[in-house]
Amino acid sequence: MKKCSLFFLIFVSLHAAAQPLTVEKIMRDSKWIGTSPSNISWYYNSKQILFNWNPEKAAADSTYSFEINTKEPVKLKYHDAGFEKAISAGTYNLAKNKIAFIFNDDLYLLDVATGESKRITQTDEAENNPSFCMHDEWVAYQSGDNLFAWNIASGITKQLTDFEKEKPAAKKLNRQDEWLQQDQLQTSDIIKQRKEKTDARKKYLQQVKDADSIHIIYRGDKSVQSLQVDPSGRFITYNLFEDADNAKNTVVPAYITQSGYTTDIPGRTNVGAPQGKYRFFVFDRIKDTVIEINMDSLPGIKDRADYMKDYPSKFKDTLLRDVIVYGCSWNDEGTAAVIDIRAKDNKDRWLMQLDAASGKLKLMDRQRDEAWIAGPGIDDYFSEGWINDHVFYFQSEASGYSHLYSFDINTQTKKTITQGNYEVQFAKLSNDKKYFYIITNEENLGKQNFYRISIDGSNKQKITSMDGGYTVSISPDEKNIAYRYSYQNKPWELYVQPITPGAKPVQVTHLAMSDEFRSYPWRDAKIFTFAARDGAQVYARIYQPSKEKKNNAAVIFVHGAGYLQNVDYWWSYYFREMMFNNLLADKGYTVMDIDYRGSAGYGRNWRTGIYRYMGGKDLNDEMDAAKFLVQQYGIDASRIGMYGGSYGGFMTLMALFTQPDVIKAGAALRPVTDWSHYNHEYTSDILNEPFNDSIAYRRSSPVNFASGLKNHLLICHGMVDENVHYQDAVRLAQRLIELGKDNWELASYPVEDHGFVEPSSWTDEYKRILKLFDDNLLKP
Q1: Model pLDDT for residues 108-120, shown as the tens digit of each residue
Q2: Is the dihedral of CA 446, 447, 453, 455 positive or negative?
Q3: DSSP string, 598-614
Q4: Whole-angstrom Cα distance, residue 245 to residue 227?
């Protein structure tokens, strides 16, 4: 919680009267707000919970251990903490009696019954990605570009793959020497006979060697990725990635450096830059063959996106689309595999059954989205696997919300496990494969709860009961859960409780709020919905001033990240802004915060509502919020301000440039001003690529509408921002200069990245925002 405590320095410096502490005292104590736990995991014995915490107000968090049925967490020594956390992150065998894990880049094996661990490797090369295979008798692991396997009983290690860059070139004789050799063989029968005997022996010895050698796979200049061995040890799957050779990277200059010289920080590529290509292979160790999996037969692989209809002269040819294999899931027996394939244009996801021996694919499920494929449990690839040897489970937005489904490869049938107008935001199969543990927002889209449900979707049991949000870790024996829980005005604390409906949670930590922080009456802001112009219900939060202080001015806060849920009942990622909104309300402002179109938590249609038009429906929602404030809260329509960072900064610019009669003053913090200068991974999902869909970029980029500015604009941007580059602010500044605008200001922060870290920077930024609103919304 270090960042949160730093921000409180700003809050108090702006609003000291609201707190019993002085500004000077707060500045001396940077841990004023308290400390919350993070990175929760269970130790293998199911009795201890490991987590990061900082009750001592040290420079950084330490690892603590809490044993069930004790009273207080215990701080672990640095080495012990690292070792125990490595074990808790390890991989179990099928019998759940051994754990393979990585500690300090070396491989270890733990016996669960005895608690004894054995070191397997001690090398300069980093080992990673351990798994059990061949009837749990071997531990496979990756070292460098290759897979190895260690036999638990004998201790023998064998290499499973041999990736080499290029095949050595055969030595060639020059033409003269080759002629002399052939001439000698023609003129001497003895020399000829000796050569034949030598060649025969070499051939025999090579055959003997080849019978016990490793198949060499030449990768060329491509890199090996997603290397994986199946449970039987026969098949190895992998991607070969060929990087684009003509993609230009950005540079971020750092002006304030220890050396005194300007330093160039290597940056990312921009959206639309050439992308690398992936090819997926299966290496059959028994047949000693390598098969490249042909993606040409994927259903709809040649389908054209709907947006292309806007460019009839550009997209004339029908081409095979590039794809990426995100992962390969094997059942426990190693008799069936499913590969998760995504189209690089973001429009398709295929789940294909893989016949590893032949390389043939068979369709299980295709998800097509004319916007882009995403959603809980889909983006992260973790919510899929095998219920048994023939039933595969996965998540899909087929219904409009992310839910659990199963597919039986024997009957070729798909079944729905969960359903409704809510999202499954976490899913994990139980050890006995009879239940799913899930987190959903089914009771209220702004609240979460943890459930246990049978694999067929029946017998759902609610385990947690407090209103708010949860991040849950399940004990290895599945008798208890440890979780971080928070409410919208109460930071995260650690709890533990049995996995039993109605069980009482035990609070483990109690220091997320200090006494001083608790002394301020943080608002339990009202959460509600209002109707947008198209009839959609928009979730909103409102911070209301007291009647005697209400000044009939309002501020709309716009959360960043785009796909993020902020109007919810748990502690906000934007806790700084939550505190600032309380300050504004204390001064008489009415503050509103909404989850506009594109926000997380509300299903597929809400998520994709911004497709091809950022600043369209999302901005309409914000403008409808302004109208709602006027109609329902008596706000003066000429005294509404807006602020937000990143995506929120972009939205503020679009409001000031395209809706100048609605927003009187706005603070755009680290804003995107031109989407064609942002990264590929995020932007291409929503707007496609600039050279393919220029319409989407033109109408979505604020720099194109800067001429519409007539009210007051504050731009704040870190100069070493490696996410949204400072160049965005500079390009907009130049445009505003050329347009002759004089009602704007650019505040630059030379040592700050996208998220500020220095209290002085936060203080300066929020003093400027407050002055902007006071000067322009309070004065007639």
Answers
A1: 999 999 999 999 9
A2: positive
A3: T-TTS-HHHHGGGTT-T
A4: 24
Q: Give 476-545 as a 3 state SS string.
A: CCCCEEEEEEEECCEEEEEEEEECCCCCCCEECCCCCCCHHHHCCCCCCCEEEEEECCCCCEEEEEEECC
What is the pTM for the complete model shown? 0.92
Q: Give which of 643, 457, 487 is closest to 554, Cα–Cα.
A: 643
Residue 140, both tokens: 């496979």
Task: Give the Cα separation of 471 and 449 in Å (integer).
Answer: 10
Average pLDDT over the chain, rounded to whole?
A: 92
Side-chain half-sphere CA neighbours of 536 within 13 A: 21
The confidence score (pLDDT) of residue 524 equals: 97
CB atoms inside a 10 Å sphere around CB 564: 18
Closest CA to 296 of 325, 313, 319: 319
Q: Is the per-residue pLDDT at 329 higher than 70?
A: yes
Q: Which of 3-12, 45-54, 288-297 has the lowest mean pLDDT?
A: 3-12
**761-776 residue pLDDT tens:** 888 898 899 999 999 9
Handedness of CA 303, 309, 310, 313 (dihedral sign): positive
- How far is Cα 309 from Cα 316, in angstroms, rounded to an integer? 10
Gap between the Cα atoms of 284 and 106, Å rounded: 27
Q: By C-alpha distance, which of 622, 615, 649, 625 is closest to 724? A: 649
Q: What dihedral angle (degrees, nearest 10) is formed by the CA atoms of 668, 674, 679, 683? A: 100
